[in-house]
Design brief:
322 residues; TIM Barrel; 2 domains; 11 helices; 10 strands
Length: 322
């Protein structure tokens, strides 16, 4: 289990096309608040014949953000670039020059056995000449995961590759919409992806393989307006959290606050986690009633939960406080 808050604090990852005009001004003026991360996308949100133009527009936006950050104080989110292929990673870092200091990492779409080695090698290469680590966040969304006979082998083989660079893997991400697209599925605003059993099975398998060693983020929620979108998002976030996901990909600023609220830690959980972590492991009694006298706390079976809860509290805060 990850034991540093940096892995939990990506939180709400706001996706934005890399060629979006005005994104720099929105960041500099804190239009989206002060508790989110930013993904600049050069892949699915960009036309195939617009990539070079989008890269140039992204460079201009990042230069503006970088220059402003040298002159005044504002919330600078963690910034990630979603690339199309491994070779972009090294090329973009060179193109950005000193501005690359505000880049926290790269998002690796459709991560698969076909591209994993190239992606990992590229991220390792850019880390040879930086002051702070440049992380990777692979996305599990390849249609190759659909085939039950191959899925387990693929997931474990990919984990073996990622484990060789584990210190550079900030999050594992999942592409819920891409996986739904294979079947022609699309959930409505009152439907959780965890109720779509063929997709939920894939998500569960990803958590089973990666959840003990990595933080895995929840799939995107595509509704941001209209009847029931908020209640629908809250329900899916509740399902995400129960199933072991931390954080979520978002596509509209209105979703950010709901994601952050969903991962705040309750006072009861916070108090119980602190009690469990403060337990004397040599005590004759390793079980006791909870702080609110409502449930059982047992050191041997709740220690990992307690450690994870305290990381979440540091990353997202406590409900009604902290």
């Amino acid at each position: 289990m990850k034991n540093a808050v940096k892995y939990y604090s990506v939180g709400a990852l706001l996706y934005c096309p890399a060629n979006r005009a005005g994104i720099a001004e929105s960041i500099i003026n804190q239009k989206f608040g002060d508790k989110f991360s930013l993904a600049l996308c050069l892949e699915d949100t960009i036309g195939d014949d617009c990539v070079e133009e989008a890269e140039e527009m992204m460079r201009g936006s990042l230069e503006k953000i970088y220059r402003s950050s040298q002159k005044k104080v504002f919330y600078l989110p963690r910034i990630f670039i979603r690339v199309r292929e491994a070779e972009q990673i090294v090329r973009l870092m060179k193109m950005l020059g000193k501005v690359s200091e505000i880049i926290n990492g790269f998002i690796l779409p459709k991560f698969s056995l076909d591209n994993a080695d190239a992606y990992i090698q590229a991220v390792r290469r850019v880390n040879e000449n930086v002051k702070s680590p440049v992380y990777m966040m692979p996305i599990f969304e390849s249609p190759s995961l659909i085939n039950l006979r191959d899925r387990y082998d693929i997931l474990y083989k990919l984990k073996e590759k990622l484990d060789q660079a584990e210190e550079l893997v900030l999050n594992i991400r999942v592409g819920g919409n891409d996986l739904c697209n294979v079947f022609g599925f699309r959930r409505h605003s009152n439907e959780s992806i965890h109720k779509i059993h063929p997709i939920a099975g894939i998500l569960s398998d990803i958590i089973t393989v990666y959840g003990r060693d990595y933080v895995v983020s929840g799939p995107v929620w595509e509704y941001y307006d209209g009847p029931g979108w908020e209640s629908g998002l809250r329900q899916e976030l509740e399902d995400d959290r129960l199933c072991g996901f931390v954080g979520k990909t978002v596509i509209h600023p209105k979703q950010i606050e709901l994601v952050n609220e969903a991962y705040q830690v309750s006072r009861e959980d916070f108090d119980d986690a602190r009690q469990i972590l403060g337990w004397d492991a040599d005590s004759r009694f390793l079980v006791a009633g909870s702080s609110a006298s409502e449930r059982m706390n047992e050191y041997k079976v709740h220690a990992n939960w307690a450690a994870r809860t305290m990381m979440m509290a540091e990353a997202f805060g406590e409900k009604g406080g902290l």
